[in-house]
Write a structure and sequence with these properties.
With about 400 residues, the chain is of the alpha/beta class. It folds into two domains: about 5-170, 3-Layer(aba) Sandwich (Rossmann fold), CATH 3.40.50; about 180-375, 3-Layer(aba) Sandwich (Rossmann fold). The chain contains 13 helices and 17 strands. A hairpin with a 2-residue loop joins strand 2 and strand 3 (about 30). Helix 8 packs across helix 9. Bound molecules: adenosine-5'-diphosphate and magnesium ion.
Length: about 400
């Protein structure tokens, strides 16, 4: 793998660099609630300002289409937080393109930082519109992609834009790719742990990494589909027919399923009980893995030399159903940074890792959830073309 790194770019002084980042972070009461993605972009921003480039940062935030308040999806509070992290003024432009953006960029001094408004406020972004890409490109001299998490999407700011500007990988994108190599060419045994909710986003990785992995441990709602495929009762658990059908095809020898689980009933999730997987009642909902499953999974994790974890093992946002996920975080972290290479990724998975206080104890926390799964399943990454060979 060869990466065209921003470290190779010469004569950045005075140039306008369009830096595509993923600042799609959770906000709470108008403030950044989780700043890992911001933090991980600081080295690239510092490299550019240090080289006296004019840094114009672009990102999307949420899904403005169909959302009631555009204001709630403004990048302004994120620009403010970035300034605090950098301990430097960060300018904010209330538009993405147009005369306001042009004027503000014209006034920039070398080393200045400007954040443009939410890319998805422009319809051309998600349509990968050439026109919009050209309008963006006109604002700058060089393009840098640092948004691994968005690189699996054919959107204008990661795909079409590269037709109009010389393109490089930022330091974070480069690091993400280097760490993914450890999974593509793993030390064995490779143990992959997949949980979470949406089966459709996990199928590719279960299929591809499943072929390579020594063991693939399943949890979360994803596992429900596999239990059902094995003709086990799952009551009213989150699952669907299409996913169960897919699960049937993916049930290989190296797939390990929960042997016991935690169930509850009704809207309020009352009547919490521990059950063997064969004994789930008709009205019960599976919400976490049980203690026997944790013991079983620990055995596999303890032998691993390479570990990948994506997706919580249960509905961890609810204190009652967080144990399986906290166990997984601790088990992965305790092997990592030494006995095994441990890679963790995914929006909710990162939140869970933070909760477990194991954030500093794994080898790499990927800023990409969906993108990580696509990359590891050798899927198409339009954002990497012309940058990675
Ligand atoms: P990530 O963002 O880390 O990739 P996902 O988005 O795939 O993870 O899934 C995270 C969600 O899955 C969490 O919000 C969690 O509550 C939910 N979840 C996990 N297990 C279950 C379950 N058994 N039933 C319902 N929801 C679950
Ligand atoms: Mg998620």
């Amino acid at each position: 793998m060869k990466v065209k790194s921003i470290k190779q770019a010469k004569k950045l002084a005075g140039k306008v660099v369009l830096l595509r980042v993923d600042f799609n972070v959770p906000l709470k009461k108008g403030k950044v609630a989780e700043d890992y993605k911001l933090f991980m972009n600081l080295p690239t921003i510092r490299l550019l300002t240090g080289a006296k480039a004019k840094v114009v940062i672009i990102s999307h935030l949420g899904r403005p289409e169909g959302s009631k308040s555009k204001k709630a999806l403004s990048l302004e509070p994120i620009a403010k937080r970035l300034g605090q992290l950098l301990r430097k003024p960060v300018l904010f432009c209330p538009t993405v393109i147009g005369p306001t953006a042009k004027t503000m960029i014209k006034k920039m001094e070398p080393g200045d930082i400007l954040v443009l408004e939410n890319l998805r406020f422009e319809a051309g972004e998600e349509k990968n519109s050439s026109r919009f890409a050209r309008q963006l490109a006109k604002l700058a001299n060089i393009y840098v992609n640092n948004a691994f998490a968005v690189s699996h999407r054919a959107h204008a700011s990661v795909a079409a834009i590269k037709r109009y500007l010389p393109a490089y990988a930022g330091l974070l994108l480069e690091q993400e790719l280097q760490n993914m190599e450890q999974i593509k060419h793993p030390r064995r045994p490779l143990v992959v742990i997949i949980g979470g909710a949406k089966m459709s986003t996990k199928v590719g990785v279960i299929k591809r990494l499943g072929k390579k992995a020594d063991h693939i441990l399943l949890g979360g709602a994803v596992a429900n589909n596999f239990l059902a495929a094995n003709k086990l009762p799952i009551g009213k658990s989150l699952a669907d027919q299409a996913s169960i059908k897919m699960a049937k095809k993916l049930l290989k020898k190296n797939v390990v399923l929960p042997v016991d689980i935690i169930v509850a009933k009704g809207k309020n999730l009352t009547n919490v009980k521990m059950r063997s997987v064969a004994k789930v009642g008709k009205t019960e909902i599976i919400l976490d893995i049980g203690p026997e499953t944790m013991k079983l999974y620990a055995k596999y994790i303890k032998t691993a030399q390479t570990l990948v974890w994506n997706g919580p093992m249960g509905k961890f946002e609810n204190q009652t159903f967080r144990h399986g996920t906290m166990f997984t975080a601790r088990a992965v972290a305790s092997r990592s940074k030494g006995r095994a290479f441990g890679l963790v990724g995914g929006g909710e998975t990162i939140q869970a890792l933070r909760q477990s206080k194991m954030f500093d104890d794994v080898d790499w926390i990927s800023t990409g959830g969906g993108a990580m799964l696509v990359y590891l399943s050798n899927g198409c990454m339009p954002g990497l073309k012309k940058i990675v060979r």
